[in-house]
Specification:
The chain has 164 residues and is of the alpha/beta class. The chain contains 7 helices and 5 strands; from the N terminus they run H-E-H-E-H-E-H-E-H-E-H-H. It has a 5-stranded parallel β-sheet, sandwiched between helices. Helix 3 crosses helix 4. The protein is globular.
């Protein structure tokens, strides 16, 4: 698999800028570095929220700053990695403005964007080959949200928009 996408005119409607936030714990460090390098090679600005080595680290220490930055700094997309992907996804989804999706297949990455308007991709670093991870990142950044019936559903995710 060749990581081939670039920031095209078609993508400009999907993202307001070329900034991607990324963060991980120690289990995701090596894969994060590979993803970061490929994103930078294709013209993206990557804001790295750590960790910065394979020394043991707690994923919430990197997830919280990334999610806060997405809210306050106008960052449209984020990528989080940990061993299973579950910890980073659970932590990120505590934020009302975050729709984090745990993905390990191309189908899930496409649906996370097209049906759920996910803005954070969570990857299980211990369970993905690097080339598949890069493919998931590409799909996550290039798949548009379909809107329509899915828009109504996405609007119901936040508790403030739900009535019992």
């Amino acid at each position: 698999m060749v990581f081939r996408f670039t920031f095209t005119k078609e993508m400009q409607g999907l993202m307001s800028n070329k900034i991607v936030a990324i963060g991980c714990d120690h289990a995701g460090y090596a894969l994060k570095e590979r993803i970061k390098e490929k994103l930078q090679q294709t013209g993206f600005t990557v804001r790295d929220y750590g960790t910065y080595s394979e020394e043991p680290a707690d994923y919430p220490d990197f997830v919280h700053p990334l999610c806060r930055a997405m809210e306050t700094e106008g960052i449209d997309r984020g990528i989080l990695l940990c061993g299973s992907g579950n910890g980073v996804a659970m932590t990120a989804n505590k934020y009302a403005h975050i729709r984090a999706a745990l993905c390990w297949s191309t189908e899930l990455a496409k649906l996370a964007r097209s049906h759920n308007d996910a803005n954070v991709l969570c990857l299980p670093a211990r369970f993905l080959e690097p080339e598949l991870a890069l493919q998931l990142v590409e799909l996550f950044l290039t798949t548009p949200f379909e809107g329509g019936r899915h828009q109504r559903r996405v609007e119901k995710i936040a508790l403030k928009n739900f009535s019992c």
